[in-house]
Structures are given as structure tokens and as C-alpha cells.
Amino acid sequence: MQFSKITIETIHQLKTIVKPQNVFTDEETLKRYSHDETEDLSFLPEVVVKPETTEEVSALLKFCYDNTIAVTPRGAGTGLSGGALPVFGGISLSMEKMNKIIEIDARNLQAHVEAGVITEVLIDEVAKRNLLYPVDPSSKGSCFIGGNIAHGSGGPRVVKYGTLRDYILNLEVVLPNGEVIWTGANTLKYASGYNLTQLMIGSEGTLGVITKAVLKLVPKPSHNLVMLASFPSADSACEAVSAVFRAGMTPSALEFMERTGMEWVLKYEEIKFELKDNVEAYLLVEVDGNNLETLRADCEKIGEVLYKHGCSDILLGESASEKEELWKIRRKMPLSVKANSVYKEEDTVVPRAELPKLLKGIKEIGNKYGFKSVCYGHAGDGNLHVNIIKESMTEEAWENQLPLGIKEIMQLTVKLGGTLSGEHGIGLIQKPYMSIKFSEVHLQLMRSIKQVFDPKGILNPGKIFN
Amino acid sequence: MQFSKITIETIHQLKTIVKPQNVFTDEETLKRYSHDETEDLSFLPEVVVKPETTEEVSALLKFCYDNTIAVTPRGAGTGLSGGALPVFGGISLSMEKMNKIIEIDARNLQAHVEAGVITEVLIDEVAKRNLLYPVDPSSKGSCFIGGNIAHGSGGPRVVKYGTLRDYILNLEVVLPNGEVIWTGANTLKYASGYNLTQLMIGSEGTLGVITKAVLKLVPKPSHNLVMLASFPSADSACEAVSAVFRAGMTPSALEFMERTGMEWVLKYEEIKFELKDNVEAYLLVEVDGNNLETLRADCEKIGEVLYKHGCSDILLGESASEKEELWKIRRKMPLSVKANSVYKEEDTVVPRAELPKLLKGIKEIGNKYGFKSVCYGHAGDGNLHVNIIKESMTEEAWENQLPLGIKEIMQLTVKLGGTLSGEHGIGLIQKPYMSIKFSEVHLQLMRSIKQVFDPKGILNPGKIFN
Predict the structure, then answer these.
(1) Average pLDDT in the A390-406 region?
(2) Ramachandran area for residue B377 (φ above 0: left; ψ -120 to 50: alpha; else beta)
(3) Number of Cβ within a 10 Å radius of residue B443
(4) B1 pLDDT exceeds 80?
(5) CB contact A203 to B (< 8 Å)
(6) pLDDT at residue B392 greater than cutoff 90
């Protein structure tokens, strides 16, 4: 792809489109916007622009479209697939200044927000009105709603509440040529032509820039309970996961963690927890609802299922601090793993009951290619984060052998009815594996859709496919 | 659009692609496939073809693509927007022989079905395994899963369980040129490039023919309770609807019915129900869950909200037959209205709390243009079916004045944050109103997506847009 370089003249013009103080070319800023949370990858943008309104985004994109300038939209930079990396330089378009909660419409159980609102800020704000926005990725404290939508981000509560997709009613989108549309309507149902709202979700900023969103909210359950269950093997824990659902229970979260992950969390975090022998895996189970007695009965029933599948011990969190402590273990796991070693993270997802096969296969592939992995994730959704640990691997093995192993993991995932990514997206780093999942016909449909929205290919170039 | 006529030679060739006995040209069959449930519209196909396998659909479409023959895919013909009408003649492609439930995967809470499975057949089959497929349009006894997906069909349980969209994991689709793809993966989460599954849902057979689907199931709640609440005015009933949700309750159905609809049901159906004076509207409320005591408490809480909003009386259905009797009123309403008069049905949808404004506006527009309407629908979703009754209207007013009135209803719907159709689709009859909701830029995006999938425009021509 051939994009125009950013010149002094371009910078001058950008400063007439957005406020001059929102155009950055200093080295420190460029460096900060050269990476997201994906491994140690870094690509310098030529300029960082922070628009404050939809009109500014529109004028900016029109200018870039007319001048064939590469634009990489950016949320909070918490992505794990390299979606916000400006691999062709050009403009890093940060949505951080469009961070207003426009309205919390309690009459309709909806929230109207700008794309740069931090997910947890919204969750906390709606909670004050006894409402729940149940989409809470691990990075909720810093990630943006707009980035979540662009990547189809998930989180632990999908298992009961459904995916982010089920909570996005309508999007304001600036198309690559600067035109602005609302993709749908502010309604719970919609059968009015092709659903562009759903097409935008997960399109990773390649089809348009999401500037505003109308979100569905639900009544906030008044109670929840949390259990941490220990298992003698990862296999028995995985088997227990689908047994819980087969028993007719729908927990509001069901997370899986390997022992090594737990060890590393305890190494880096102040958490009171006794690591016992003969425990190889943990399940974190949450139930929520409006009746505490019913929840206690649910926990008992779920507990029975877990014990039947080899569970050796269950810790119950009832008080707010106990529950917080149990959740902290799971929430801190990604950072602890990251702190412990150079790593690569794969975001495998399979039908729930295939988890044991997936986990077993991953370990076998690891043995074959000589890598260790720490797995945890949203087991209730069949979504397993595979953290491949460099530790003592040679650079040569890391660079040349590992990609073959990852390819085999992806092949296994697809063979089990799954796909390359459950909630992180394809971005830059999963691109090489697309042909494992998709036929050329399928890929060509995607490329042609991209062409419809962005004939000049200026928006987030180099992502999802080539 | 210029399509090839079906000749004797074409028929001969079709009989080499599918079994000869599955190609129909007799007048009776052509007539039966010339209409769906949309008003009294009728367009004769030139031939009806009933493939039995995906391979046959693929070969058929390839042949039609190569020879520029119009193909109108058809489910059970229960549609209310004319989506299955072969307006350009050509082939009516009926999916009725692809009606196998391939697998009910109780381990993964999934069902694998062919597109021609009758919705209720699937619902009953999964219920035997204590599972729930919560998508149950009024026509569930005859409509097909494939047609439901193509139209984004709804039903009463969306209000708690979400739309059909949330239950479709993966689709086998035959593209207009005969290529076959699976659109996604059999997983609860999916962040792997543009989501073609979601794009296919609601595309009304214009982008590809859905041949198989993988559906998400949920545990079936063991109990439910039904209430029928009477209100002195439609306005107070509508106000009560959003109050229920604001009180933190999420019923599994919340249906609205006008008094006239009730009168007509009682006229045509054997139902024991006393129609009282001073009642102008009804709400049917269902709650479901695993604990009967909790449900009784829920009913009490919802009842309090309803009484506070002017409800004069609540009938509680506890036994299976009582509940069935109350549901029968709502389920029989569409047919009773249809039996009573020539009518047109609009499928308006707005944010839930705007229902009172919508209903009031519809009546005012009716007064202005001289038409009567009977309204009922999925009030919990803000989805109101507006049945415009011909009765004593002159042909002239019906043909010329009414469309202006409908246009005003659509304008009002859009103004209130809603859209043209909540669950019936655009098809043929809502097409004239598309420009009320969508800008030319937006429509052009849809047309270009159509062009990507179907460059020759052979699949369901004349639908959604021109």
C-alpha cells in the first residue's frame, strides 16, 4: 500500500481541522502511541491526533481520504492483537478526548456514550441507577467502549449475559470518506435491511471510526456469590465446566485457571490464599440474581456437580471483600503472567465441551515444540487464553519453531469447531492464521466488504487480512 | 432487472440438478408458492424447486447464476413483508425438504439443523432434553428456522432472552454463484474478522441461501407463571410496561393488546374470558425461572407496579391449562384480526418508553387519514404491530390516502428513535419507506454489499431496496 507521507504542510492542515493543541508530533507522544498491550510490538505513527467531536473526526477522515493518508484508530491501547498499531505510520487517531457519557436513559434502559468512555466508568455510573452493563473485559479499568466494540471484546459475564454484540443497539460511525451514519436504531429489535451495527462490531476499525454508541442496559441483580473450586487436574476442571450447564445452571461467570497462573499471581500480588498440593486447576464460579436464598441453593447445586467431577475443595465468597479477593486472583493473572516472562498470548475458543480436548492438545503441541504454556480464561464460553512462556526457550526456537506450534494450536481449535479468536480480534498478529479458518472465497468476501467501505484502504491498513 | 425466462430446456436441466420429482410447474403448485402471509399479494413463480441437500442448492444456484435466472428463496411462506414473493418470476426455491434436525448437542447446548426445520418442532425436541430455544414467533407452528434467520424474526421472549441474533452461532450459506461457506464457528464468542453470520441474519435471502444453522440453546427454566392485567386506557398500559423494567424486573414476556383485538379473538375463538367495561388494554406478563416461590414473589412485585399504573384487575395463570388459555388470547390475535377485515400490518418498533407516544401518534394519524387500527405486540421490546383495518374505507382511500398515513407512522417511529421493522423485515412492502430511515449514503452501502455477494442480482431480486 502506498500512503502519502505526513509533511509539515499536512501538520499545518491537521491543526486547522482539530484544535492545534490536539495534534502531536513530539517524540515522547509518538512513542507512547506506537504500541498497545500486544507483546513488545512497536510502530511509530507520524502524528497523533485527538479529535474532540464527530465533526472533527469527519473532517479529518475526509482530508485523509482525499490525500491518501493512513489512519489507525485507537482506543485506550489495551488491545492484545495489535489492532491499534500504526503499521504504515501516518496518523494515530486517538479517541481519548471523546469521553462523554451523553445520557443514561433509565426510562429505556439505555446508555448513550462517546467512544472514548472508559468501560468501568460507564459500569460504575449505571450501577448508581441499579443498572448493569455486563460487558467487562479484564482491562475494564482503562479500555474504551469504542475499542471494545471495534474488537468484539468479551469478559467473564458473557456466559450468562451474552456477548458485547447483544448490548450494542446503534452506532455513530464516520466512514473513511468522512460521511457520518448511524448504523441502526435505538431499539431492542431491528429487522430493517442489512445490519451494519453488527457488521461494525469486530471490524477492528477497518470499516469506519465508531464515534458514539447506544448501549442496552439491564437491571442490576441485587446479589451475587462467588466460589473458588480446586481440582486435582486441569482435565477434571474442564469436564466440570460443561457439566454445570448440563445440570441446568447458568452462572454469571465461570473462569478456569491453571495452577501455574495461580502461583504467579501469588508471587506478584498481596493475596491471602493457601496453595495446596494435589491441586492443578481452579474454577471461579459466580452466580447473581435478586434472591440470596436462591443463589445459595444454586451454589449448593453447582457445588454438587463440581464435587462429582473431582473437585477437592470449594471456597465460598459471601462478603464484598471475600468476593473481591477471589476475583482479584483471576483479574490479576494476565499481568502476573506478563510480569514473569516474555510471552505470547493466543485467544482460542471452542465449543464449551471441547475444552478438555483443546487443553490436552495444547500441552501436547507444547511438548512437541518445546514451549510451556499457562492457560486461563472464560471456560464457560469455551474461551481459553493460552499464554506461551518464553522462559528458557532460545531466540531461535521462539522465532522459528514457535510459529509452527501456534499454527498447530489454531488448526486444533478450528478442528474442534472453534476459531482463531474469541474476544481479542485478529489485528496484526493473528493475520497469518486466517487461512486456517477461512477459505479463499470467504476471505475474498471480507476483502470486498472492506473495499465497499474503504476503497482507498486508508483506515487501519494492514489489519485482519492483507 | 433482466432475467432469463424459464424454458422447457431450463426445466429439463433443473431436473438433472435436483430430483425430477422436486421440480414443479403445475398451476396449483405455482399458485401455492405465489404468495406468503403478506396481505393479498401474489406473484407467480415460473417453477418451484425443492432441493434436498446443500450440494443441490449449490448446483442449482451455480446454474442460475451462469444463466441469470431469478431465484427467490422461500421458508414456510409465513412472512409478513413479502420477502418470499417471486416478484420477477423465475424459481421459487423452497427449503421445505431440508428439514432435518442434524444433532442436538446437549454437551455444548447447541442444535445443528437444516434450514427447513419448523421452529416449534425444534423447540419441542430440545425441551425433551430440558433445553430451551427461546425464539418463538407467533407462527412457530409452521415457520422455518431458516426463514426466521433470514428475516431476523422475533417473538415474545426477546424481552428476557434477547433476539434471534443472540442464538445463531454459525450458518452454512450457499452464495449466489454456488460457492458454499460456513459463516462463523460453533462458539459462543467470535472475534475473527467481519462477522458474516450477523450480516446474513436479516438479509432476507438477498445475499445467500441459508442451508444449515448451529443454534445456541439455554437450560429450560422449570417453572413459569402468566398474568393478564387489565387497564382503563392503552396509555396507562404502555406506561406500566417500562415501569416494570425500571423496577428491576425482567419478565420472560410482556405483551400488549388493545381491547378491539381482544373482542375479535373472543369472536373467533372458544376462549372463556369476561370482557369488562372500562378496560381498554391488556398486558400479558410471563415470568420464568427455576424457583416457583421466587416467581410468585416476582409476580407480586410486578403486580404492585401494574396497579400503581392504573391496572384494574390481574388474572393469574398457574396451571398449565390456565397459562395456555391466557397465551392463546395473544397467539390467536393476528389470525382473528385477519379474519375480521382486510388489513395491512406495520411492524413498528421504538425505544420501550416511547410506546405511549407511538400509540397516541398512530391513533392521531388514523384520525387524520380516516383509518382504524388495532394494535398489539411485544411491548416489552417497544415492538408494536399496527393492524390497519379496511372495514368501511373506500378503495380510493385505501389505495391512495392510506400510504400517506403509513408514511407518517414510519416518520413518527423514526423520530422516536425507532425503525421501520422490528421483526418482520423490509421485504417488498416496506421498501417504499426505506428513505425515511436511511440516508442515501447508508442505502448505497447496503446496495454495494449486495453487489459483493450477488453481482448479477439473481437472489431475491426486488427486495429491501431497488
Answers:
(1) 92
(2) left
(3) 17
(4) no
(5) yes
(6) no
Amino acid at site B213 = A
Domain count, chain B: 3
pLDDT of B145 higher than 90? yes
Judgement on whether residues B190 and B230 belong to the same structural domain of the protein? no
How far is B115 from chain A, CA to nearest CA, in Å? 19
Q: Cα separations (Å) of B255 from A269, B153, B334, B382?
A: 51, 16, 13, 10
Euclidean distance between CA atoms A25 and A20, whole angstroms: 11
- Least Cα distance to A450 among A431, A439, A466 occurs for A466
In-domain check, residue B37: no
Say if residues B12 and B57 touch (Cβ distance below 8 Å).
no
Strand positions, DSSP E, B26-137: 47-49, 71-74, 91-94, 101-105, 110-114, 131-132
B127 inside 8 A of chain A by CB:
no
Is the pLDDT reported for residue A65 higher than 80?
A: yes
- Give the pLDDT band (50/70/90) at residue B391: confident
B446:A184 CB<8 A: no
> A106 and A174 share a domain?
yes
Interface test with B, best of A187, A220, A292, A358 (most B CBs within 10 A): A187
Angle A153-A154-A159 (CA atoms, 0-180°, nearest 5)?
Answer: 160
For residue range A248-295, list pLDDT tens digits in order.
Answer: 999 999 999 999 999 999 999 999 899 999 999 999 999 999 889 999
Looking at the structure, tell me whether residues A290 and A377 fall in a common domain.
no
C-alpha cell at B189: 464468542
Using pLDDT thresholds of 50, 70 and 90, give the confidence band for residue A337. Answer: confident
What is the 8-class DSSP label of residue A459?
B
CA distance A252 to chain B (A): 13
CB B191 to CB A185 under 8 A? no
User: Smallest Cβ distance to A419: which of B185, B222, B445?
Assistant: B185
| Beta strand A23-24 pairing with A47-49 | antiparallel
Say yes or no to pLDDT of A246 above 80. Answer: yes
Whether A91 is in a domain gets the answer: no
State the pairing for strand pair A71-74/A91-94: parallel
Would you say residue A1 has pLDDT above 80? no
pLDDT tens for residues A188-237? 999 999 999 999 999 999 999 999 999 999 999 999 999 999 999 999 99
Strands annotated E in B269-370: 281-289, 313-317, 343-349
Last residue of a domain, one of B280, B314, B337: B337
**CA distances to A344, B43, B149, B234, B466 from B450, in Å:** 39, 23, 17, 41, 11
**Domain ranges, residue B272:** 221-337
For residue B79, give the C-alpha cell.
412472512
Q: Contact, B288 vs B217, CB < 8 A?
A: no
Which of A151, A185, A219 is the last residue before a domain boundary? Answer: A219
CA separation for the pair B35, A181 (Å, rounded) = 35
Name the residue among B130, B246, B421 with its Cβ closest to that of A191. B421
Q: Which of A192, A222, A414 sits opposite B420 (nearest CB)?
A: A192
ipTM of the complex: 0.97
